[in-house]
Every structure is written in C-alpha cells, then in structure tokens.
Amino acid sequence: MRQFFKYFWLGIVFILLLALLLAPVFAKRYVNKNGEALSGRKLHIEKLRINYFTSTLKVIDFAMFEKNGQDEFVGFDTLLVNLKPLRLLKHELYLQQFLLANLRGNVIRNDSLFNFSDLMTASSTDTVPENPENDTNETKKPLHLNLHNLEMRNGNFSFVDKPVNNAVHMHSLSFAIPHIYWNAADSSKADLAFQLSEGGTFVSDVNYDVASGDFTGLIQIDGLALNMLLPYARRLCGGDFQRAQDAVQETFLRLCRADRGRIEGHEAAWLFRVCRSRVIDMKRKEKPVQPL
C-alpha cells in the first residue's frame, strides 16, 4: 500500500509538471484560434513562454489585425513581464520588469469613425450589469502598485486621416521609467514632461483625489511645429512652399486664439479645415481685380 501511494503522488506531480510545461502551448493555440471571439479581431502569437521559477511571461511576435483579418492594427516583437505573484496576498502588485520592444500601431480615421471604433463598441456592450443583491458592505483593501523598470523601445505609430488625405508617422519612440509606487488609498499627483525631437515641449499635471473620485488635469504644449499640415497645405497651394508655410502659420495663430472647449475632441479635423480656409482666402486675395 505504501508503494502504491508513492507512485500515486509521483504520478500526480508528473501530471502537474506536464500541464505547466504544456500550458503556454495550449494558451497560444487557443488565442490564435479564438482571438476574434475573445477580442473581436483576429489575433496571432508566434511564441508564448512562461518561466514559473522567475514568474516571467514572454510574448514574441504578437499582432492584432484589422477587421479584414489581413492588415495589422497593432503589434509588437517582444513583451516581457516579470512579476512577484506572492505579493498579491499582501494586496500589492509588484512588477519587477515590463519591457515592450518594437511596438507598432496604425490608426486610421474615416469620416467620424476610427479603425478601432468597433473595439470600443464591443467593450461597452460587454459590461456586466450591477446586481444589488450581491452588494455587500465589506470594503475591499486597495491594491498597492509597485512597478519597476518600465521600458518601451523603438515604438512606431502612424495616423492616417483619410478625409483630409494626410498621414502622420512617429518613429523610434522609447522611454524608461525606473520606479512607480502608488498606494491606491491615497490621493495621487502625476507630472510628466518631455521635449520633442523636432522642437516643442509637452508638459502634463494630473491630480487624483481617491476619496471623491475627482481628478484635474492640465496638458500644455509649447513650440510645437505643425509639420503635419505642411504637406496638405502645399498640395492646396499647387506646390508653392512659401505660401503653404504662410497658411500653416496663420492656422497656428487661429489655434492660439481659439476656444479650446469648442474644438476639443476634433482638433485635427479643425486644423485641416482652418488651413484649407486660409489657403482659399489667400487665393482670393491674389486674384487680379477686373476693371469695370
């Protein structure tokens, strides 16, 4: 009987180890096969690796496709996440490393819709209604965030605005944040500032009050060249670079004087519409006056 239990527990351990080894393989196959049911889009993962000794997850060559199932919407070469899962027992999310390499994203606007609008609609319809019967008076202990070594390398993004026939491309975007700690029970203040390689600065000041749930945010952009307007204005001006520059400068002046509340949420469309109007006005002024 003792010999039986010995082999029985050895068999259980062997099955558990085999399940752990095969789990990444089956998880990868499941995502690749059922990605559309999970997210509304076709998904593909080339390799999925889990190191149970170091609590490390590694995803290699991930892609989410457009609705046509062929063009890539977002993807990356490598995602590395290193956790300390036992810290969750102390209500702390401890992240030792987060690395995202060669992130790619393609955003397309066509009229009032974007190429991710269907994903937003799907997520809003999947919300579970609240059940007051399951509501208890117990307050959950807030989760502390202890995040280390957050890094993105060589990100590349593109934005295509089809109504105005314009595209903006951003290459080689990288950042590294050594440490973020937040006790979710306390109010928080997050400030961010960086300089743009082609000129200009970006500064944000965000404050969050946990008790009331209110937050205030300020974003300030200074000295940003409106280079994305220049190719569009140049086409309208028949290739005249100087007139295109004048039109873009006048557009920027209009932006400085504009009521931000009226253009919030559709800034790009507003800029291109104003730029087009400026070019039309310039052409009208340059027309010779016909004598009576």
Task: Set down the secondary structure blueprint.
Elements lengths: L1 H38 L3 E9 L4 E10 L6 E12 L8 E10 L2 E7 L2 E2 L2 H9 L18 E18 L4 E18 L4 E8 L5 E8 L6 E8 L7 H7 L4 H17 L2 H4 L3 H20 L6
Question: Can you characterise this structure?
Answer:
It contains six helices and eleven strands. Strands 1, 2, 3, 4, 5, 6, 7 and 8 form an eight-stranded mixed beta sheet that branches. Strands 9-10-11 form a three-stranded antiparallel beta sheet, with no helix packed on it. The protein starts with a helix and ends in a 6-residue tail after the last helix. The chain is 33% helix and 38% strand. 7% of the residues are buried. It is elongated and about 110 Å long. With 292 residues, it is an alpha+beta fold. The mean pLDDT is 80.
How would you describe this structure in keywords?
single chain, 292 residues, 3-stranded antiparallel sheet, 6 helices
What amount of the residues lies in strands?
35-45%
Report the oligomer. single chain
Number of strands: 11
Using the CA coordinates, give the radius of gyration: 27 Å
End-to-end span in angstroms? 118 Å
Unreliable segments of 5+ consecutive residues: none
Q: Helical residue percent?
A: 25-40%
Shape: elongated
Mean pLDDT: 80
In this structure, how is the largest beta sheet organized?
Answer: 8 strands, mixed
SS element count, helices:
6
Helical/strand content category: alpha+beta
Order of helices and strands: HEEEEEEHEEEEEHHHH
